[in-house]
Amino acid sequence: MDHEYPFYQQQEPQMTDYQAQLEQIRQQISALDAELLGLLAKRQQFTNQVAETKIKAHMQVRDPVREEQLLIKLIKQGQPLGLTPQYVTSLFHVIIEDSVLNQQMLLAQKANPDNAQPLNRVAFLGDKGSYSYLATQKYFSRRPGELMEIGCPSFDAIIHKVETGEADYAVLPIENTSSGSINEVFDVLQHTSLSIIGELTHPVEHALLVACDTDISKLKTLYAHPQVFSQCSHFLAELGNIEVKPTDSTSAAMLKVSEMQDPSIAAIGSAPGGALYGLTPIKSNLANQKENHSRFIVVARKPVNVPLQIPAKTTLVMSTVQKPGALVEALLVLRDNQINMTKLESRPINGNPWEEMFYIDVEANLQDGPMQTAIEQLHGITRSLKVLGCYPSEEVTPTRVAAADALQG
Ligand SMILES: C=C(O[C@@H]1C=C(C(=O)O)C=C[C@H]1O)C(=O)O
C-alpha cells in the first residue's frame, strides 16, 4: 500500500498561497512607490523655488559644483543601503535633468511673458501616435496651457498652419541619429518667416506593430514613413521579400494596419503610438543604431528672448559668395569669436542647384556680445544671412562623478 501521510503534516503550499504572498508584497511596493512620487513632487517644488531665487539673483540655472557635491553625497549614502553608485547616479541624472529643464522653462517664461497662453495650438506631422505627436506631447507637457494637437500631412502644411495663424507652434523633426538630417525640413526653413524657439530630442524606438495574432513569417506587407525605412534598413534587409509601402507619417501607417486587420500586414512605429490604434508589437528595437533619437525644433511666428542664465543655441542660414574658401572664412568668424558650432548642414538653393545654403547651429545666445560681433562680420562676407532663431538648449549634459572618488573619505 502507498505510504499514508499523517493528516496533520503540512500540505504543500498551493499556487493561490504564493499568489497571495506576491500580492501582499506588491501592495507594499506600490505604497512605497506612491511615497516616492510624493517626495519627487516636493523636490520639484523646491527646485522651482530655487529658480525663482536665481531669476532675482541673475544666477545661472546650472550649478555643476552643487550637482557634483550632491551626487557624491548620495553615492556615499546609498552604499550602505546596497544601492550601487551606478544606480544612484543614473537615477539622479534623470531627476536633475527634469529639475534643470523645469527651471529653464520658468526662466524662459519670465523672459517672454506674452507667450503664456491658455491654449497652445500645435501643428505636427501625422496624427496621434506619430513620433512628432509624441515629441509634441513631451515638449508641451512642461509648459502651461492646454495642448490642441493639429496633425498635418506634410511639412509644408505644418508651416502654413503657423504662418496663417491657424496654429501657434509647429514641431518639426530635423535630424535623426540613424538617418541624419531631414532635408525636407531644412528646405521649408529656407523660405519661411517663422523662428525657431525651442528644441528637444526624443527616443525613437521602432517596433513591428500588428493588428491581430500573427508572426513575422506570415508578413507580406509593411507600412511606414520613408524615414523609418532608412533608420531600419538592416532589419528590412534581413526580412527578405516583404513589400514595403511608404506612408506620409508613422500614424498613417498604424491607422492603415489597424483598419485592415490583416495578419500579413504590419506597420513600423512606436509601441505607445501603436497602442493608440490597438496595435501590438511583435518585435522591438528595429533601428540600425541602438541609441536612436530624433531631434525636433519648435517654430513660431515670433522669436523668443533667451535669458543669459540658461544655455542657448542659435541657428543661422547663409549663402556664401562664389569664391574659394568663402565657407572657411565664414566659419573662422565663429572661431575668432570663440563660438562653438554644433551642426553644419548644406542644402541646394531652390532654382539655383549649383549654389548652396549653409545651416549652422551654434552654442551661443543672440544677445551675447561675441555673437553680435560674429553676425555683423558674417553680414560683411556672405551673400545672404538670416537668423532662424535663438532658443533654450534642451540638452542637459549630466554631471559625471567617478564612483571611486565618491566613495573615498
Ligand atoms: C536646484 C538647483 O538647480 C540645478 C538643479 C539641481 C538639482 O536638481 O539638484 C542642482 C544644481 C543645479 O544644476 C540648485 O542650484 O540647487
UniProtKB/TrEMBL annotation:
Its main location: cytoplasm. The keyword 4Fe-4S does not apply. Pathway: Metabolic intermediate biosynthesis; prephenate biosynthesis; prephenate from chorismate: step 1/1; Amino-acid biosynthesis; L-phenylalanine biosynthesis; phenylpyruvate from prephenate: step 1/1. Residues 16-107 form the Chorismate mutase domain. It is found in: Cytoplasm. One of its GO terms (molecular function) is chorismate mutase activity. PANTHER family: PREPHENATE DEHYDRATASE P PROTEIN (PTHR21022), PREPHENATE DEHYDRATASE-RELATED (PTHR21022:SF19). GO terms for biological process: chorismate metabolic process; L-phenylalanine biosynthetic process. Catalyzes the Claisen rearrangement of chorismate to prephenate and the decarboxylation/dehydration of prephenate to phenylpyruvate. SMART domains: CM_2 (SM00830). Residues 15-42 form a coiled coil. Substrate binds at residues 26, 43, 54, 63, 67, 99, 103. It comes from Bowmanella pacifica. SUPFAM superfamilies: ACT-like, Chorismate mutase II, Periplasmic binding protein-like II. This is Bifunctional chorismate mutase/prephenate dehydratase. Its EC number is 4.2.1.51, 5.4.99.5. One of its GO terms (cellular component) is cytoplasm. Signal peptide: none annotated. Keywords: Amino-acid biosynthesis, Aromatic amino acid biosynthesis, Coiled coil, Cytoplasm, Isomerase, Lyase, Multifunctional enzyme, Phenylalanine biosynthesis. The gene is pheA. Pfam families: CM_2, PDT.
